């Protein structure tokens, strides 16, 4: 058995997140496992780099699996075509990489990067993947608040309640708002790991800062409270994208 990494993208609008669930077959993991199992004629089980909630999108998601198929790398173009040909339009596989037997898509990740998009001028052509926010926003103040995140490690205040996390500690390496077009902005956040609902809760709270509903000191107190009820509401999932994930180079096997 050889181990492989899949790099894929998905439009989460009509999907119920990554992870297999008992109450729906409409998850990225289940769809991929069923289709790849069918093509390779062996039971395929995928382990993802993380759990994305319903409606969240991914431009670069990584999952690992094991297979007896001996030519997945040698005939990579053929298999990419075969896989993508049977997958729904919402899911696309970009690459297959050969990795060491112990390589793990989730635990070996060094960092993950998410984007969150907002727009302040109503635009029907981006609304499916960006949050429309009416009114003035102080992005300078929001960036000052975002910089405060790098001073802390416990983000319980931004975590979904009743999870099975052993720790709510994360190391945020970057958090910044950048203007991408007239009336359009992107929030970039990079960390070693993320808690469930963390990015959407952070964005929701930063928007409160931008609307002058809370101060920078209030934002700091929210983090220190370690209480989800202290922070802002989760923003919509549709504008959130997992865009990058980094691994140590030595886990990959050169073809």
Structural notes for this entry:
This protein has 255 residues and is α+β, with helices and mostly antiparallel strands. The chain folds into two domains: 2-107, Alpha-Beta Plaits; 114-243, Pseudouridine synthase I, catalytic domain, C-terminal subdomain (Alpha-Beta Plaits, 2-Layer Sandwich), CATH 3.30.70.660. The protein has five helices and nine strands. It has helices spanning 28-40, 76-86, 139-148, 198-210, 216-225, and strands at residues 2-10, 47-48, 57-67, 91-99, 111-119, 131-132, 172-181, 184-191, 240-246. Strands 1, 2, 3, 4, 5, 6, 7, 8 and 9 form a nine-stranded mixed beta sheet that branches. The chain is globular. The mean pLDDT is 95.
How would you sum up the global shape?
globular
In the predicted model, the low-confidence regions spanning at least 5 consecutive residues are none
- CATH architecture name of the largest domain: 2-Layer Sandwich
Sheet with the most strands? 9 strands, mixed
Order of helices and strands: EHEEHEEEHEEHHE
Q: What's the count of strands? A: 9
Strand and helix map with partners:
Layout: E1 2-10, H1 28-40, E2 47-48, E3 57-67, H2 76-86, E4 91-99, E5 111-119, E6 131-132, H3 139-148, E7 172-181, E8 184-191, H4 198-210, H5 216-225, E9 240-246
Parallel strand pairs: 3-9, 5-6
Antiparallel strand pairs: 1-3, 1-4, 2-3, 5-8, 5-9, 7-8
Helix pairs in contact: 3-4
Short précis:
The protein is 22% helix and 26% strand.
């Amino acid at each position: 058995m050889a181990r492989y990494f899949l790099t894929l993208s998905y439009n989460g609008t009509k999907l119920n997140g990554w992870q297999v669930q008992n109450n729906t077959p409409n998850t990225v993991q289940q769809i991929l496992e069923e289709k790849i199992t069918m093509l390779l004629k062996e039971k395929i089980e995928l382990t993802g780099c993380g759990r994305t909630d319903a409606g969240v999108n991914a431009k670069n998601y990584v999952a690992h699996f094991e297979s007896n198929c001996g030519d997945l790398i040698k005939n990579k173009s053929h298999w990419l075509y075969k896989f993508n040909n049977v997958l729904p339009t919402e899911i696309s596989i970009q690459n297959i990489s050969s990795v060491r037997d112990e390589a793990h898509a989730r635990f070996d990740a060094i960092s993950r990067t998410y984007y969150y998009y907002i727009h302040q001028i109503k635009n029907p052509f981006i609304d499916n993947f960006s949050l429309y926010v009416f009114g003035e926003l102080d992005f300078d103040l929001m960036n000052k608040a975002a910089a405060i995140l790098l001073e802390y490690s416990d983000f319980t205040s931004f975590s979904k309640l009743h999870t099975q996390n052993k720790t709510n500690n994360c190391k945020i390496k970057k958090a910044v708002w950048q203007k991408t077009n007239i009336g359009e902005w992107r929030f970039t956040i990079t960390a070693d790991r993320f808690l469930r609902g963390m990015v959407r809760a952070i964005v929701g709270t930063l928007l409160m800062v931008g609307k002058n509903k809370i101060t920078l000191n209030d934002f700091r107190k929210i983090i220190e409270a370690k209480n989800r009820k202290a922070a802002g509401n989760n923003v919509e999932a549709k504008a959130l994208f997992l865009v990058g994930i980094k691994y140590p180079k030595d886990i990959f096997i050169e073809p």
